[in-house]
Amino acid sequence: MSITKKATVFAVGLGLVTLSACGSSDSGSDNPESKSKTVTLVSHNSWAVSKGVLAAFEKQSGYKVRVLEDGDAGQAVNKAILTKDNPQGDVFFGVDNTLLSRALDNGLFQSYEPKGSDLIRPEYRVDQDKHRVTPVDTGDICVNYDKAYFSEHKLAPPTTYDDLIKPEYKNLLVTENASTSSPGLGFLLGTSARYGDDGWQDYWKKLKANGVKVVDGWEQAYNEEFSGSAGGKQAKADRPLVVSYASSPPAEVIYADPKPTTAPTGVATGTCFRQVEYAGLLAGAKNTEGGKALLDFLLTKTFQDDMPLNMFVYPVLKAAQVPPEFVKYGPQAENPETMDPAKIADNRDDWVKSWTSLVLK
Protein backbone atom coordinates (compact mmCIF):
# COMPACT_ATOMS: atom_id res chain seq x y z
CA MET A 1 0.00 0.00 0.00
CA SER A 2 -0.18 2.77 -1.65
CA ILE A 3 2.10 1.88 -0.53
CA THR A 4 1.15 3.39 -0.97
CA LYS A 5 0.48 3.45 -1.50
CA LYS A 6 1.15 3.62 -0.80
CA ALA A 7 0.04 6.41 -1.14
CA THR A 8 1.31 9.02 -3.22
CA VAL A 9 4.29 6.81 -2.97
CA PHE A 10 7.11 8.59 -4.82
CA ALA A 11 5.79 9.81 -8.14
CA VAL A 12 6.45 13.55 -7.84
CA GLY A 13 9.40 13.95 -5.50
CA LEU A 14 11.58 11.39 -7.21
CA GLY A 15 10.68 12.02 -10.81
CA LEU A 16 8.48 9.05 -11.58
CA VAL A 17 6.08 9.68 -14.42
CA THR A 18 2.72 8.26 -13.47
CA LEU A 19 0.22 7.17 -16.04
CA SER A 20 -2.20 9.72 -17.41
CA ALA A 21 -5.30 9.13 -19.45
CA CYS A 22 -4.35 7.04 -22.45
CA GLY A 23 -7.64 6.96 -24.30
CA SER A 24 -11.03 8.58 -24.33
CA SER A 25 -13.90 6.57 -22.95
CA ASP A 26 -16.99 5.86 -25.03
CA SER A 27 -18.79 4.49 -21.98
CA GLY A 28 -21.78 6.69 -22.68
CA SER A 29 -22.85 4.50 -25.60
CA ASP A 30 -26.15 2.64 -25.58
CA ASN A 31 -24.45 -0.65 -24.77
CA PRO A 32 -21.15 0.34 -23.14
CA GLU A 33 -20.14 -3.18 -22.11
CA SER A 34 -20.14 -4.37 -25.70
CA LYS A 35 -18.90 -1.17 -27.37
CA SER A 36 -16.47 0.42 -24.92
CA LYS A 37 -12.86 -0.59 -25.33
CA THR A 38 -11.70 1.76 -22.60
CA VAL A 39 -11.60 0.70 -18.97
CA THR A 40 -11.11 3.47 -16.42
CA LEU A 41 -9.10 3.04 -13.25
CA VAL A 42 -9.67 5.58 -10.46
CA SER A 43 -6.77 5.85 -8.04
CA HIS A 44 -4.75 8.02 -5.71
CA ASN A 45 -1.59 9.56 -7.13
CA SER A 46 0.67 6.58 -6.42
CA TRP A 47 -0.52 4.45 -9.31
CA ALA A 48 2.27 3.52 -11.72
CA VAL A 49 3.07 0.58 -13.99
CA SER A 50 5.77 -0.11 -16.57
CA LYS A 51 4.67 0.84 -20.09
CA GLY A 52 5.55 -2.55 -21.51
CA VAL A 53 3.56 -4.41 -18.86
CA LEU A 54 0.52 -2.23 -19.42
CA ALA A 55 0.85 -2.46 -23.21
CA ALA A 56 0.91 -6.25 -23.00
CA PHE A 57 -2.31 -6.25 -20.98
CA GLU A 58 -3.99 -3.86 -23.41
CA LYS A 59 -2.96 -5.99 -26.38
CA GLN A 60 -4.06 -9.25 -24.76
CA SER A 61 -7.36 -7.94 -23.38
CA GLY A 62 -8.34 -5.52 -26.11
CA TYR A 63 -9.00 -2.77 -23.56
CA LYS A 64 -7.30 0.60 -23.36
CA VAL A 65 -6.61 1.68 -19.78
CA ARG A 66 -7.48 5.20 -18.72
CA VAL A 67 -6.31 6.39 -15.28
CA LEU A 68 -7.87 9.14 -13.18
CA GLU A 69 -5.79 10.21 -10.19
CA ASP A 70 -7.60 11.95 -7.34
CA GLY A 71 -4.93 13.07 -4.87
CA ASP A 72 -4.01 11.35 -1.62
CA ALA A 73 -5.73 8.10 -0.69
CA GLY A 74 -8.11 9.69 1.80
CA GLN A 75 -9.17 12.33 -0.71
CA ALA A 76 -9.59 9.77 -3.47
CA VAL A 77 -11.77 7.50 -1.34
CA ASN A 78 -13.93 10.39 -0.17
CA LYS A 79 -14.43 11.61 -3.74
CA ALA A 80 -15.30 8.10 -4.92
CA ILE A 81 -17.96 7.85 -2.22
CA LEU A 82 -19.41 11.24 -3.14
CA THR A 83 -19.64 10.22 -6.82
CA LYS A 84 -20.68 6.59 -6.28
CA ASP A 85 -24.08 7.06 -7.98
CA ASN A 86 -22.29 8.28 -11.09
CA PRO A 87 -18.81 6.78 -10.75
CA GLN A 88 -15.86 8.29 -12.56
CA GLY A 89 -14.61 4.90 -13.64
CA ASP A 90 -14.87 1.14 -13.48
CA VAL A 91 -12.24 0.07 -10.94
CA PHE A 92 -10.97 1.85 -7.85
CA PHE A 93 -7.44 1.15 -6.66
CA GLY A 94 -5.90 2.36 -3.43
CA VAL A 95 -8.39 2.03 -0.60
CA ASP A 96 -6.40 0.61 2.31
CA ASN A 97 -7.20 -1.13 5.57
CA THR A 98 -7.47 2.20 7.40
CA LEU A 99 -10.33 3.36 5.13
CA LEU A 100 -11.79 0.07 3.93
CA SER A 101 -14.86 0.00 6.15
CA ARG A 102 -15.84 3.50 5.00
CA ALA A 103 -15.81 2.35 1.39
CA LEU A 104 -17.69 -0.88 2.09
CA ASP A 105 -20.28 0.74 4.35
CA ASN A 106 -21.04 3.28 1.63
CA GLY A 107 -21.60 0.59 -1.01
CA LEU A 108 -18.69 1.68 -3.16
CA PHE A 109 -18.02 -1.73 -4.72
CA GLN A 110 -19.86 -4.62 -6.33
CA SER A 111 -18.88 -8.25 -5.91
CA TYR A 112 -16.19 -9.83 -8.07
CA GLU A 113 -13.54 -12.43 -7.26
CA PRO A 114 -10.63 -12.00 -9.68
CA LYS A 115 -8.72 -14.88 -11.17
CA GLY A 116 -5.74 -15.71 -8.97
CA SER A 117 -7.37 -14.64 -5.71
CA ASP A 118 -6.55 -18.04 -4.22
CA LEU A 119 -2.84 -17.24 -4.63
CA ILE A 120 -2.96 -14.18 -2.37
CA ARG A 121 -1.20 -14.56 0.96
CA PRO A 122 -3.89 -15.52 3.50
CA GLU A 123 -3.05 -12.78 6.01
CA TYR A 124 -4.09 -10.09 3.52
CA ARG A 125 -7.46 -11.52 2.50
CA VAL A 126 -10.63 -9.80 3.71
CA ASP A 127 -14.32 -9.70 2.79
CA GLN A 128 -14.15 -13.34 1.71
CA ASP A 129 -17.90 -13.84 1.81
CA LYS A 130 -18.72 -11.01 -0.62
CA HIS A 131 -15.48 -10.40 -2.54
CA ARG A 132 -16.07 -6.69 -2.90
CA VAL A 133 -12.36 -5.84 -2.69
CA THR A 134 -9.14 -7.61 -3.59
CA PRO A 135 -5.74 -7.10 -1.88
CA VAL A 136 -3.16 -5.77 -4.33
CA ASP A 137 -0.18 -4.60 -2.28
CA THR A 138 1.09 -4.06 1.23
CA GLY A 139 3.61 -1.84 3.01
CA ASP A 140 4.56 -0.32 6.33
CA ILE A 141 3.86 3.26 7.37
CA CYS A 142 6.85 4.30 9.47
CA VAL A 143 8.81 7.33 10.57
CA ASN A 144 11.79 7.94 8.26
CA TYR A 145 14.88 9.85 9.32
CA ASP A 146 17.55 11.90 7.57
CA LYS A 147 20.83 10.11 8.29
CA ALA A 148 22.99 13.14 7.49
CA TYR A 149 21.15 15.35 9.98
CA PHE A 150 21.57 12.96 12.87
CA SER A 151 25.19 12.30 11.99
CA GLU A 152 25.98 16.02 11.80
CA HIS A 153 24.25 16.68 15.12
CA LYS A 154 25.80 13.63 16.77
CA LEU A 155 22.32 12.51 17.77
CA ALA A 156 21.03 8.95 17.60
CA PRO A 157 17.92 8.73 15.43
CA PRO A 158 14.69 7.67 17.11
CA THR A 159 13.62 4.04 16.86
CA THR A 160 10.28 3.92 18.72
CA TYR A 161 7.13 5.93 19.30
CA ASP A 162 8.39 6.69 22.80
CA ASP A 163 11.52 8.28 21.38
CA LEU A 164 9.54 10.81 19.36
CA ILE A 165 8.30 12.62 22.46
CA LYS A 166 11.77 13.01 23.98
CA PRO A 167 13.17 16.58 24.22
CA GLU A 168 16.09 15.86 21.88
CA TYR A 169 13.61 15.34 19.02
CA LYS A 170 11.63 18.52 19.61
CA ASN A 171 10.47 20.27 16.40
CA LEU A 172 11.95 17.54 14.18
CA LEU A 173 8.91 15.51 13.08
CA VAL A 174 6.42 16.24 10.30
CA THR A 175 3.36 14.06 9.76
CA GLU A 176 0.28 14.11 7.58
CA ASN A 177 -3.25 15.08 8.54
CA ALA A 178 -5.06 11.97 9.79
CA SER A 179 -8.36 13.20 8.34
CA THR A 180 -7.09 13.67 4.78
CA SER A 181 -4.08 11.39 4.37
CA SER A 182 -3.70 7.63 4.41
CA PRO A 183 -0.20 7.62 5.96
CA GLY A 184 -1.33 10.23 8.47
CA LEU A 185 -4.25 8.03 9.48
CA GLY A 186 -1.99 4.98 9.57
CA PHE A 187 0.36 6.76 11.94
CA LEU A 188 -2.56 7.66 14.20
CA LEU A 189 -3.77 4.05 14.19
CA GLY A 190 -0.26 2.86 14.95
CA THR A 191 -0.14 5.02 18.07
CA SER A 192 -3.59 3.80 19.07
CA ALA A 193 -2.48 0.19 18.67
CA ARG A 194 0.68 0.90 20.64
CA TYR A 195 -0.81 2.89 23.53
CA GLY A 196 -4.38 1.61 23.60
CA ASP A 197 -7.74 3.34 23.76
CA ASP A 198 -6.84 5.07 27.00
CA GLY A 199 -3.32 6.14 26.12
CA TRP A 200 -3.06 7.40 22.56
CA GLN A 201 -4.53 10.84 23.24
CA ASP A 202 -2.05 11.47 26.05
CA TYR A 203 0.72 10.42 23.67
CA TRP A 204 -0.43 12.92 21.05
CA LYS A 205 -0.59 15.69 23.64
CA LYS A 206 3.07 15.01 24.34
CA LEU A 207 3.87 14.80 20.63
CA LYS A 208 2.16 18.15 20.03
CA ALA A 209 4.05 19.69 22.93
CA ASN A 210 7.22 18.36 21.35
CA GLY A 211 6.60 20.35 18.20
CA VAL A 212 5.16 17.89 15.67
CA LYS A 213 4.19 19.63 12.42
CA VAL A 214 1.07 18.52 10.54
CA VAL A 215 0.57 19.04 6.78
CA ASP A 216 -2.21 17.92 4.44
CA GLY A 217 -0.66 15.00 2.61
CA TRP A 218 2.33 12.80 1.88
CA GLU A 219 3.72 14.80 -1.03
CA GLN A 220 3.98 17.97 1.03
CA ALA A 221 5.40 16.17 4.05
CA TYR A 222 7.97 14.10 2.19
CA ASN A 223 8.95 16.33 -0.73
CA GLU A 224 8.70 19.77 0.88
CA GLU A 225 9.23 19.36 4.62
CA PHE A 226 11.56 16.35 5.02
CA SER A 227 15.24 17.25 4.80
CA GLY A 228 16.30 13.72 3.85
CA SER A 229 14.41 13.36 0.55
CA ALA A 230 15.60 14.48 -2.86
CA GLY A 231 12.67 16.85 -3.10
CA GLY A 232 13.16 18.09 0.45
CA LYS A 233 16.78 18.98 -0.21
CA GLN A 234 15.74 21.06 -3.20
CA ALA A 235 13.07 22.75 -1.10
CA LYS A 236 15.58 23.42 1.72
CA ALA A 237 13.40 21.45 4.11
CA ASP A 238 14.30 21.50 7.79
CA ARG A 239 12.46 18.52 9.33
CA PRO A 240 14.68 15.40 9.59
CA LEU A 241 11.81 13.11 10.64
CA VAL A 242 8.76 12.31 8.50
CA VAL A 243 5.91 9.83 8.49
CA SER A 244 6.39 7.87 5.27
CA TYR A 245 7.00 4.23 4.34
CA ALA A 246 9.55 1.52 5.05
CA SER A 247 10.06 1.38 1.28
CA SER A 248 11.06 5.05 1.01
CA PRO A 249 14.83 4.47 1.44
CA PRO A 250 15.08 2.15 -1.60
CA ALA A 251 13.44 4.84 -3.73
CA GLU A 252 16.00 7.39 -2.58
CA VAL A 253 18.75 5.06 -3.77
CA ILE A 254 17.18 3.89 -7.03
CA TYR A 255 16.27 7.34 -8.32
CA ALA A 256 19.37 9.17 -7.15
CA ASP A 257 21.96 10.30 -9.69
CA PRO A 258 24.63 9.33 -8.94
CA LYS A 259 23.42 6.39 -6.87
CA PRO A 260 24.71 6.32 -3.29
CA THR A 261 26.19 3.14 -1.86
CA THR A 262 23.83 3.34 1.11
CA ALA A 263 20.39 4.86 1.54
CA PRO A 264 20.48 8.49 2.75
CA THR A 265 17.40 7.85 4.86
CA GLY A 266 16.54 5.25 7.47
CA VAL A 267 13.45 3.83 9.14
CA ALA A 268 12.51 3.98 12.81
CA THR A 269 11.43 0.35 12.90
CA GLY A 270 9.53 0.70 16.16
CA THR A 271 7.07 3.17 14.59
CA CYS A 272 5.58 1.01 11.83
CA PHE A 273 1.95 0.23 11.04
CA ARG A 274 1.09 -2.42 8.45
CA GLN A 275 -0.97 -1.13 5.51
CA VAL A 276 -2.76 -3.20 2.87
CA GLU A 277 -4.20 -1.66 -0.30
CA TYR A 278 -7.19 -3.02 -2.17
CA ALA A 279 -8.90 -2.63 -5.52
CA GLY A 280 -12.54 -3.25 -6.40
CA LEU A 281 -15.10 -3.10 -9.18
CA LEU A 282 -17.08 0.08 -8.66
CA ALA A 283 -20.82 -0.20 -8.20
CA GLY A 284 -22.42 1.37 -11.25
CA ALA A 285 -19.33 0.83 -13.40
CA LYS A 286 -20.11 1.43 -17.08
CA ASN A 287 -17.65 -1.20 -18.30
CA THR A 288 -17.92 -4.09 -15.86
CA GLU A 289 -16.28 -6.63 -18.18
CA GLY A 290 -13.32 -4.35 -18.72
CA GLY A 291 -13.16 -3.72 -14.97
CA LYS A 292 -13.08 -7.44 -14.26
CA ALA A 293 -10.29 -7.93 -16.79
CA LEU A 294 -8.29 -5.13 -15.15
CA LEU A 295 -8.74 -6.64 -11.69
CA ASP A 296 -7.57 -10.00 -13.03
CA PHE A 297 -4.49 -8.21 -14.40
CA LEU A 298 -3.63 -6.72 -10.99
CA LEU A 299 -3.24 -10.24 -9.61
CA THR A 300 -1.03 -11.60 -12.38
CA LYS A 301 2.55 -12.42 -11.49
CA THR A 302 3.64 -10.05 -14.26
CA PHE A 303 1.97 -7.07 -12.62
CA GLN A 304 2.87 -8.11 -9.07
CA ASP A 305 6.56 -8.51 -10.03
CA ASP A 306 6.51 -5.14 -11.79
CA MET A 307 4.71 -3.25 -9.02
CA PRO A 308 7.36 -2.86 -6.27
CA LEU A 309 9.79 -0.70 -8.26
CA ASN A 310 6.96 1.42 -9.67
CA MET A 311 4.83 2.04 -6.58
CA PHE A 312 7.32 1.02 -3.88
CA VAL A 313 5.04 -1.44 -2.18
CA TYR A 314 5.25 -5.17 -1.54
CA PRO A 315 3.28 -7.71 -3.61
CA VAL A 316 0.54 -9.82 -2.04
CA LEU A 317 0.88 -12.75 -4.42
CA LYS A 318 2.76 -15.70 -2.91
CA ALA A 319 4.88 -16.28 -6.01
CA ALA A 320 5.78 -12.64 -6.71
CA GLN A 321 9.41 -11.55 -6.51
CA VAL A 322 10.68 -8.90 -4.08
CA PRO A 323 13.40 -6.71 -5.63
CA PRO A 324 16.87 -6.99 -4.05
CA GLU A 325 16.84 -3.23 -3.43
CA PHE A 326 13.89 -3.73 -1.09
CA VAL A 327 15.65 -6.52 0.76
CA LYS A 328 18.77 -4.37 1.21
CA TYR A 329 17.32 -0.90 1.83
CA GLY A 330 13.65 -1.29 2.76
CA PRO A 331 12.70 -4.63 4.32
CA GLN A 332 9.25 -4.95 5.81
CA ALA A 333 9.04 -4.36 9.54
CA GLU A 334 9.36 -7.53 11.58
CA ASN A 335 6.87 -6.48 14.24
CA PRO A 336 4.65 -3.71 12.87
CA GLU A 337 1.61 -2.49 14.73
CA THR A 338 -1.61 -3.94 13.32
CA MET A 339 -5.29 -3.55 14.07
CA ASP A 340 -8.38 -5.61 13.40
CA PRO A 341 -10.35 -3.98 10.55
CA ALA A 342 -13.50 -4.26 12.68
CA LYS A 343 -11.90 -2.15 15.40
CA ILE A 344 -10.82 0.42 12.83
CA ALA A 345 -14.38 0.53 11.52
CA ASP A 346 -15.85 1.00 15.00
CA ASN A 347 -13.44 3.71 16.14
CA ARG A 348 -11.79 5.45 13.18
CA ASP A 349 -14.16 8.40 12.79
CA ASP A 350 -14.26 9.11 16.54
CA TRP A 351 -10.49 8.83 16.77
CA VAL A 352 -9.99 11.21 13.86
CA LYS A 353 -12.40 13.74 15.40
CA SER A 354 -10.60 13.52 18.72
CA TRP A 355 -7.22 13.77 17.02
CA THR A 356 -8.32 16.83 15.03
CA SER A 357 -9.58 18.58 18.14
CA LEU A 358 -6.47 17.66 20.08
CA VAL A 359 -3.75 18.33 17.52
CA LEU A 360 -5.05 20.90 15.07
CA LYS A 361 -6.94 23.27 17.39
N-to-C span: 30 Å
Low-pLDDT runs of 5+ residues are 1-34
Coarse structural class: alpha/beta
H and E order: HEHEHEHEEHHEHHEHHEHEHHHEHH
Counting DSSP H or I runs of 4 or more residues, the number of helices is: 16
Shape: globular
Q: How much of the sequence is in beta strands? A: 15-25%
Short note summarizing the structure:
By secondary structure, the chain is an alpha/beta fold. It contains 16 helices and 10 strands.
Describe the structure.
- The protein is an alpha/beta fold and 361 residues long.
- Helices cover 37% and strands 18% of the residues.
- Strands 1, 2, 3, 4, 5, 6, 7, 8, 9 and 10 form a 10-stranded mixed beta sheet that branches.
Q: What's the arrangement of secondary structure elements?
A:
Blueprint lengths: L31 H4 L2 E6 L7 H11 L2 E6 L3 H10 L8 E6 L3 H6 L3 E2 L23 E13 H6 L8 H4 L8 E4 L5 H14 L4 H10 L3 E3 L2 H8 L4 H5 L6 E5 L2 H7 L10 E18 L5 H11 L2 H6 L1 H4 L2 E2 L8 H6 L11 H20 L1
Parallel strand pairs: 1-2, 1-3, 6-7, 6-8
Antiparallel strand pairs: 3-9, 4-9, 5-8, 5-9, 5-10
For the structure shown, list the relevant keywords.
single chain, 361 residues, alpha/beta, ten-stranded mixed β-sheet, 10 strands
